Amino acid sequence: MYGGGFAMLPAFLGDLFGTKQLGAIHGMVLAAWGLAGVIGPTIYDIVKKQTGSLDTTLIIFASLFMVALVVSILMKISIIKSQNLKKLELKMVS
Predict the structure, then answer these.
(1) What CA–CA distance (Å, rounded) separates 49 from 45?
(2) In the prediction, which pLDDT does 73 show?
(3) Relative to the CA of 74, which of 1, 50, 64, 82 has its CA 20 to 30 Å away?
(4) From CA 58, how far away is CA 81, in angstroms rounded?
(5) What are phi and psi of 19, to 5 degrees?
(6) Residue 55: other Cβ atoms inside 10 A
(7) From residue 40, how far is each of 5, 12, 26 by CA, in Å?
């Protein structure tokens, strides 16, 4: 699973954002991926030590996943709007 996601990431980012700044975008995604790999287990450990339960940890991570879902949806809407504006501008120039 990890290798498949890692291998498909550049193609996914190219489809989503275009290839003009693909290297910079890919670098930011990999940096965030690495940061999440450090911060995620740290949050888990802190919450587990303070509460003594995994229930709170699961609620926190479920909340973070919901935030990520909302951000992803808003990002996709923004990209679609931007692409539609670009198409409209090209039609007006033609």
Answers:
(1) 6
(2) 93
(3) 1
(4) 35
(5) -100, 0
(6) 10
(7) 18, 24, 21
H helices, E strands: number in the chain: 3, 0
Nearest to 26 by CA among 18, 38, 68: 18
Residue 18: what pLDDT? 83
Chain mean pLDDT for the chain? 88
Neighbours of 47 (CB within 10 A): 19
Q: Which of 11, 35, 33 is nearest to 22 (CA)?
A: 11
**CA-only gyration radius of the chain, Å:** 18
Instruction: Report the C-alpha gap between 85 and 16 in whole angstroms.
Output: 16
* pLDDT given for residue 1 in this prediction: 64
Instruction: Assess whether pLDDT exceeds 80 at residue 94.
Output: no
